[in-house]
Amino acid sequence: MVVNAKDASELKEEKKYLWADTYRPVALKDFICNKDKAIELQHTINEDECRHFIFEGQAGVGKRTMIWALLREAYGPDKVQARDECKTFNLKVYSEL
């Protein structure tokens, strides 16, 4: 599938008006779901004890949104530059019978 610049701009404009994108939390204090995890991350940042984090969960639960809010909180909203990439990993599962 080939996407030209015109199609890409139309998709971006279309995505801009989705409800989830419009009301997406931008700060950790704005989270309603997973608020306990957001507050825990906020305390970790405020205490300067940031370590490595692994975010896991089903698609659509807010992992990426929480990561972006975490980065904005830690480094400031003007310093965060991120690009959205998706990589697929094919894992082989071996089972012993």
Summarize the structure in words.
The chain is an all-alpha fold and 97 residues long. It has a domain at 27-83. It is built from 4 helices and no strands. It has helices at 5-16, 19-22, 35-46, 63-75. The longest helix is centred in the last third of the chain and has 13 residues, at 63-75. The radius of gyration is 17 Å and the shape is extended. The relative contact order is 0.12. The mean pLDDT is 78.
Mind sketching the topology for me?
Blueprint: H1 5-16, H2 19-22, H3 35-46, H4 63-75
Helix pairs in contact: 3-4
InterPro entries: DNA_Rep/Repair_Clamp_Loader, P-loop_NTPase
GO cellular component, one term: DNA replication factor C complex
GO molecular function, one term: DNA clamp loader activity
